[in-house]
Design brief:
Length: 399
Amino acid sequence: MIVTAIVAVIALAAGTAATVWALRSSDDVAAGSESPSSAANNLLSALGSGDILGIMNGLAPAEAKISKDYTEATISEAKRLEILKPDADPNKVSGVQIKSEGVKFDDAAAEKVNDHLTINKVVEGKITITSDVKDVPLTDKLVDALGAEANKGPQTETIDFAKEMADRKGKPIGIATIKVGDDWYPSLFYTIANAALEEEDLKWPAKGITPAGAGSANDAAKNMVEKALAGDIEGVIALLPPDEMGVLHDVGPVILEQIGRVPATDAKLIELETDSKDVTGGTLLTIRKLVLEVEGETGEITRDGDCYTAKAQGETQRLCADEITQLVEQQGGRNIPSAAIDVIARVGAQVLKDGVGVVATEVDGKWYVSPFRTYSELVLTLMRGLQPSDIDELIKAIK
């Protein structure tokens, strides 16, 4: 049931992932609504009219911005790697169409969780999602590799909200709306969290975890490492951005209750120095020096350019980007094809050159660690290490 709820939410709240490209030339904050019910209904109106820009603009600002910030770079890399055609229209890369019919919310049944979160109940109507691989602007070599899969034709799935409510023993699917400033917006993240809570028969907690940002980006990264090593999950959650990850702050007490006590590790952070550079939406912090104490023994990792040096138990090892190929050959021997060695070496070298780290964001003068932006930057780093020929080799391997 949770999967159906999430699919419905994505259809209602986000349209398709590629729609965020429509926002690529604008950093304007989306217009909100005066109430939770009007936010939900405005979303419905945008979906029913096929207003893709309206759908995406109607989401909570931080959620829309996260997707927007990384869509352009990801599609650009996909074109460079000859996965998508050079002239691919970003508005049409998904191959998905969404149509709504007779969708209605029960305003009287809306659940007010707190002063900034309301769950609106969908009780009637249908959402039809049609996908067709042929509509995705893949390059010819990708289409050939897909074979029969590319010729399946349109695939259609319909979600009947009345039927879903009956299957859920009278519980309608909920669409979460959150208050940002003075306005209300539909939220994809909160809706997914609500579906997960319902699946486990759990309730939203009365009070969430209070955000606890740091005074600088480096301090945010340092505090995150310290909290994680100490098994302080509440402290880890408190260091997540309140605009992007406010959902985890609100649902945090339930998470803590479900996972129970997490023991501290045997490691202690002694020193953390980072190099910083601006990236889309935040600051990327990469390790320059990391010193840990584990069971009384001190270990150290330092970075100089694209070389990393590790010191532990009286031994020192150094690895540079131009040594990755030799290392893979030594470790894999003859068991790894030469093409695979080239791919691993290039990607590994790219990681060493760009550095390993996290993305920190500033919210109201405090710094937090953003898991979404950290993950997205890592994916982009891996993609930048690939070449079009690597995709060719991958296609050969899966045929």
